[in-house]
């Protein structure tokens, strides 16, 4: 398995500093959810046409890969569907240039005012459209276990309506578990679709959850890593530590070394 971190953990780092620290800490790659404040990745400074060649060269010099491009695409709101498709296609194009295997999209919600089956059909349509665009490029479109799309029942219902070979699942450990689904059940039902993982920890309480450093919450991360090892998973273990959204979380100088130490212990 390869080890990465997502840039939500490092919202104030420059691209160059991100590469330097990733190499120094021993990471294999980086997952991108915003760079230097720009969340629409094709518009981020390192990926503009005039900078792209230098960016690719920098990755090679540091021995790093970009494992996934995380978009804001979601398909539960009809009025935002066209924009989501455009961002997805732009991200696939960038992933091809960077030789990145995945882009991440959301479902993301099942609005109460809309029949669940109608929203599921809309999400499946969005995945199909992006998947067909990605076919033959080496890039796959991954639906994250997130929001209301947090259990294998609803994810399977979506994927059964998705007509593309370039679609898979990003397993964010925390979401299904804190919504009551055991990791072994998630894996048993979705293993054939799971291509990438988000490693995340939190403590659940009555009003929501509190994110924690890996190993300090109630998500059985070590157990899940063991499950992946036992079943021959050889993809990425990518830290998702959402300091971008929760500024009071630990600085990356704390969270990234802590994650690497935890992973090395359990691998």
TrEMBL record:
Domain of life assignment: Bacteria
InterPro entries: IolE/XylAMocC-like (IPR050312), Xyl_isomerase-like_sf (IPR036237), Xyl_isomerase-like_TIM-brl (IPR013022)
Gene3D superfamilies for this protein: Divalent-metal-dependent TIM barrel enzymes
Keywords: Isomerase
Protein name: Sugar phosphate isomerase/epimerase
Pfam families (alphabetical): AP_endonuc_2
Ranges where the Xylose isomerase-like TIM barrel domain occurs: 20-251
Organism: Paenibacillus whitsoniae
SUPFAM superfamilies: Xylose isomerase-like
Molecular function via GO: isomerase activity
Phylogenetic classification of the source organism: Bacteria, Bacillati, Bacillota, Bacilli, Bacillales
């Amino acid at each position: 398995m390869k080890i990465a971190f997502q840039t939500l953990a490092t919202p104030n780092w420059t691209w160059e500093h991100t590469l330097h620290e990733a190499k120094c800490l021993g990471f294999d790659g980086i997952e991108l959810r915003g760079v230097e404040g720009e969340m629409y990745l094709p518009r981020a400074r390192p990926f503009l046409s005039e900078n792209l060649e230098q960016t690719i060269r920098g990755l090679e010099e540091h021995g790093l890969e970009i494992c996934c491009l995380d978009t804001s695409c979601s398909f539960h709101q009809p009025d935002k569907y066209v924009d989501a498709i455009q961002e997805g296609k732009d991200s696939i194009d960038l992933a091809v240039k960077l030789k990145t295997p995945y882009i991440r999209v959301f479902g993301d919600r099942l609005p109460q005012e809309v029949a669940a089956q109608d929203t599921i059909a809309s999400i499946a349509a969005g995945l199909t459209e992006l998947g067909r665009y990605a076919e033959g490029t080496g890039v796959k479109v991954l639906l994250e276990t997130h929001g209301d799309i947090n259990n294998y029942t609803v994810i399977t219902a979506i994927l059964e309506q998705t007509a593309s070979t370039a679609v898979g699942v990003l397993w964010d450990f925390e979401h299904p578990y804190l919504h009551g689904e055991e990791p072994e059940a998630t894996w048993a039902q979705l293993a054939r679709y799971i291509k990438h993982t988000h490693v995340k920890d939190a403590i659940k309480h009555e009003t929501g959850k509190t994110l924690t450093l890996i190993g300090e919450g109630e998500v059985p991360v070590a157990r899940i890593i063991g499950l992946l090892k036992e079943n021959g998973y050889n993809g990425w273990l990518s830290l998702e530590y959402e300091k971008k959204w929760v500024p009071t979380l630990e600085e990356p100088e704390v969270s990234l070394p802590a994650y690497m130490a935890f992973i090395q212990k359990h691998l």
